[in-house]
Amino acid sequence: MNNTKAIDLNTHALSWVGKIHYDFGFLVQKAFRQNGLDLSKEQWSVLKRLHVNDGQPQNDLAFITHRDKTSMTRLVNTMESKNLVERKSDENDRRVNRIFLTDHGKEVIQKVQPIMYDLIPAVQESLSEEEIDTLITTLKKIKTKIADIAEE
What we know:
Elements: H1 13-34, H2 41-52, E1 56-57, H3 58-64, H4 69-81, E2 85-89, E3 97-101, H5 103-124, H6 129-151
Antiparallel strand pairs: 1-3, 2-3
Helix pairs in contact: 2-5, 3-4
């Protein structure tokens, strides 16, 4: 797997995935600011997961949002200071912190969802359905290969 041959990053698929991820994150931040929302894309990621399953353990949120425990703690602290979430000890295991949406957090979700529902199709509008399907299939293959290599 160690290949010393130089890679042209403009022809490297993963480089483009990274660029798109960065650019889309910037676009999301801009849309939030334009709509008067003091919210980061990382905070939105946590809010949308809590919207689906409120009261998740903090460690589970860290895992599903691909964050380490320390950065998740900082993120939750910031979100608590913005009154988006509240942390409560688990009734059965006091060592476990469960994260719950506040009423304000629920209001923010209601404001953000239409923004995201408009933004995602706008970004993809230059692609045909076939191109979107092909892209998703290709990205799934890459994800599977990464998982296979990680298990070696």
